[in-house]
Specification:
The chain has 535 residues and is an alpha+beta fold. It is 56% helix and 11% strand. The protein contains 20 helices and 11 strands. Strands 7-8-4-9 form a 4-stranded antiparallel sheet. Strands 1-6-5 form a 3-stranded antiparallel sheet, with no helix packed on it. The relative contact order is 0.07.
Length: 535
């Protein structure tokens, strides 16, 4: 190994410091070719450190450095510090020059701020995009597992899943804590449950078919019949929950094992019968009261909201706009008349009212019963003096329970009058109105003689359905008379093939529409092929 003295090294370094082109020293230390690749490699190495550091490393590699004479680490550290200070000095000089030129300094400052601002904007944009994507992924996952929004005004308490399990088990009803539990119990998907419960101000879809039915007292009653998918969900609520809840013994409307006959029997052969009617009974039971029914059973806020939306409907306006039909909601949701759940919900809701009315009836010696919105009291001669009291206090109780008695439907029927309770005559025994029976016999005779053209019963549009229903009603009240009517009606229905007509008509229409669509598709295909060959 060749060694050099400290004086020689210092002289070399001084030459290096004075020289502007460090490549002049390279032939002295390095044996190399003049290829471009080799030169570029040297440039890269010098840029990574400094000229002095590179020269020292080459001197040591080629044997011009004796570690015993000088400490290479100290020298290397010295040159590193010198290089750092030199760079800082150059930067300060450059900065001083730029400060002297005010316009250039301001321009540089603006340029730097703009660069920093763009970098920050880019970083913020990337962060927002990342968080947005992450939030969307979480939202999509949550929608698959839960229902978090069901429309304006119905979603703020969907996160409350606190359930009173002990109360639900005591009532022997399904323990459902969340929307997913409800969907699983109903054997539908969470998306289907969301579709059935979502409340839109304006929609192209309606879950109810609405039609009017003539009343005996005049006017029409609006019936909202649920569509098949909603009806299936409502039947689950009715059969698995509402029918298992104990109601008041004097409530007879839509209770298993009870009927209009059981409602009329307590009032047979009484001196006086008082009949009252609750005004706008179903529309007066709003969404909040329906939700309260399910909350009182022990269900969580989320499940109660879902059940209340399934069992209620808003007032709907049919609107046609630009060839499209829309269903627009007007006002608050209420209990629909036509849903299988509605009467059962009223029985749970009116349980306290039934106890109070039954209590006041017992106090004054009256019998009490309620069939949906029909309230009936009856008593003997001793109760005549208490009629005013029973009317006064029953009105007060009804109003306390947030209902209203219909002022035009109060009837006080004494023994010498025809006493009717929910359409059943109760003067001596449960019976059917003789005048109605006479009219019904005459109608059946006319149909057998002249046919059903131009015939109707109680203003109904479908006379066959009407006579079938009335024959069953008579059979329910008086089996002896009802058997004869049912046989006579059965012959008429058989003559007109009543039971199969609607189904066969529907199937034919469906088959005809399918065939016509297939034929239309074939014709279009043939035309398109012919057009290609013509071209």
């Amino acid at each position: 190994m060749v060694s050099i003295s400290l004086e020689l090294f210092n002289s070399v370094i001084s030459i290096v410091r004075r020289g502007k082109n460090y490549i002049l020293l390279l032939p002295f230390f390095v044996f190399m070719s003049n290829s471009k690749e080799r030169r570029q490699e040297l440039y890269d190495k010098i840029k990574k450190s400094s000229k002095q550091e590179y020269i020292l490393s080459e001197m040591k590699r080629l044997g011009f450095w004796n570690d015993k004479v000088l400490d290479f680490d100290k020298v290397n550290t010295f040159f590193k510090e010198e290089s750092t200070l030199s760079k800082e000095l150059n930067a300060l000089i450059k900065k001083e020059k730029s400060i002297e030129d005010t316009d250039a300094f301001i321009a540089n400052k603006h340029k730097e701020r703009k660069r920093l601002s763009k970098e920050k904007q880019k970083e913020t944009k990337e962060k927002r995009a990342f968080f947005r994507k992450e939030k969307a992924a979480k939202w999509a996952l949550k929608k698959q597992e839960d229902i978090v929004y069901l429309g304006e005004g119905f979603s703020h308490q969907l996160n409350d899943k606190k359930t009173h399990k002990s109360r639900l088990k005591f009532l022997e009803v399904p323990v459902l804590q969340s929307a997913k539990d409800v969907a699983t119990a109903m054997n539908i998907t969470l998306s289907e449950l969301r579709f059935l419960t979502f409340s839109r101000k304006n929609s192209k879809v309606s879950h109810y078919k609405r039609f009017k039915v003539a009343k005996k007292s005049g006017g029409f009653r609006l019936i909202s019949a649920p569509m098949p998918r909603l009806k299936k969900a409502q039947l689950y609520i009715l059969e698995q929950i509402l029918n298992k809840v104990t109601t008041h013994p004097k409530a007879h409307g839509c209770v298993i094992g009870k009927s209009i006959l059981s409602n009329a029997e307590p009032h047979v052969n009484k001196a006086v019968v008082i009949n009252q009617d609750l005004k706008n009974f179903f529309p007066s039971i709003t969404y909040n009261r329906i939700k309260g029914v399910f909350k009182s059973l022990g269900y969580s806020e989320q499940v109660a909201v879902i059940f209340a939306l399934l069992c209620s409907e808003p007032k709907i306006l049919d609107i046609s706009l630009l060839g499209e039909n829309y269903f627009s909601q007007v006002g608050n949701r209420f209990l629909p008349q036509g849903s299988p759940c509605s009467p059962a919900i009223t029985n749970v809701l009116c349980k306290n009212m039934d106890y109070r009315l039954d209590g006041i009836a017992n106090k004054y010696g009256f019998n009490y019963s309620r069939y949906v919105d029909d309230i009936t009291f009856s008593g003997n001669n001793e109760q005549f003096k208490s009629i005013t009291a029973i009317l006064k206090y029953s009105r007060k109780i009804v109003e306390d329970e947030n209902f209203v008695l219909h002022p035009d439907k109060l009837r006080i029927m004494k023994r010498h009058q025809r006493q009717e309770v929910t359409g059943v005559v109760v003067n001596e025994k449960p019976n059917v109105n003789k005048k109605s029976l006479k009219r019904f016999r005459a109608l059946l005779y006319q149909i057998e003689k002249d046919g059903i053209q131009g015939k109707s019963w109680n203003g109904g549009a479908n006379v066959l359905a009407e006579i079938d229903g009335y024959a069953n009603f008579v059979y329910q009240i008086n089996k002896e008379k009802g058997v004869a009517f049912k046989e006579q009606v059965a012959k008429i229905l058989g003559t007109y093939n009543y039971k199969e007509t609607h189904r066969e008509k529907f199937v034919k229409v469906k088959q005809g529409s399918i065939k016509s669509k297939i034929q239309t598709g074939i014709n279009r295909f043939i035309k398109s092929v012919l057009a290609v060959f013509k071209k």
